[in-house]
Amino acid sequence: MIVAQILLTVFLSEDAALGMVASALYLVGLWKLFNKSGIKGWWALVPFARDYQLSRCAGRENEGPVFSLAQFGITALEVVLLINNRTEAQKATFGTADTIIALLILALMLVHFIYCIRVWSGMINVYGVKKRWLLLCAFVYTRFIPALIWGFNPKYQPEWKVEDISAELKRLATQGSATVMDEGLTVNLTERTATEFFRKKVLLRDIHMAIPQGHMVLLLGGSGAGKTTYVNAINGYEKAKAQVMLNGTDLYRHYKKMQYEVGFVPQSEMMRGKDTVLNTLLDAAKLRLPIEVSAKQRRERVNEVMEIFGLTPVKDNLVEKLSGGQKKRLSISMEFISNPSLFILDEPDSGLDGVMARELFEQLRKIADTGKIVIVITHTPDRVIDLFDDVIVLAKDSARTGRLAYYGSIEDARRFFQREKMEQIVKSVNRKEEGGDGLADDFVMKYAEVAKNG
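The structure assignment produced for this chain is given below.
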């Protein structure tokens, strides 16, 4: 109660002249800082949004949403507290609800302060100044000092700009469209965007490739490189600005017709534990096969798939009684019911030991050998790399956009990256703060040049 009343006194204080002056100077300095970082200066005048934009300038965009939402929450709760205590009589009867609101404000202030330290630490790194500047950056009444000095003094320049992709990277942005194949998968993806916190964000850009039938392809990339976004784009789940052609047919334009030609197995298993294997697959057949397929044909297809994946001996077992490997095979079988031409799997080996994973990937190899295209995301590729034909490597460029760093055969990939292991290739394109070598831009540009030259 005492803490809440102290907070209220601060919030309702009429002696706010110092705070207003400090805030005004801070906004002026922030305007200049934004300009230096390649962001429109007027964002400094937009409440809450400026916190997010500042986090982008600091290279701490991931902290931006929490940083700005915490400030929004503080302001909103302060308004509620002010409304509840407009008069002296209301202040005198400061109740439980007011105490809870005040404590929530305290909690949000703590969160905002922590993220403020993180963001301004990033700004210190961007401007290459001494860490002691953080003492001024951490407090409201002194934050205007570094903002004004860094903003107006030409001596202080950011090491990089928010939208700064090197001129060479821009020049090589367009590799040229892949030639559409009558048989196989052709992807010409210009960009995939999303709106996040006051701006359009490019998630993927300029990914072109043609995958022949019968190829088993490994999809590599570090966290946030866009692997899931990419597979969602090519299977039509989240459409991009792209042309996706499967065996000569535009998947986007004829999605209803082509949906049975694409199978996607997510990492999470979505099966009812109390159902039998047979009933699970019969239900999947009703969903995955065209409506004109008869019940007899559905059952025949289910029996065929159970035989392919070795599930016939356990067809009457409950799903919850299956082993981990059997559950994985059942999950894959559910999507394979429709006999898709394109089969995409997201970490099908997660939770499996080396022997079980090997058996599963050998089964996927057999599926590819029947003329299917199989694309697999896995975090342990080297134990089964001999089963793959090609590898796709996605990487985040300097603008945090998912880009194509390589597509081609496994052996050519080793020569291209000068690394023997696939996990070493992923490490090479990961950012340094993620434990990688930070060479994403180099390999994106190198591959773009190779692609242009044929």
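Interim note for the steering committee: The longest helix spans residues 96-127. The first strand starts at residue 185 and ends at 196.
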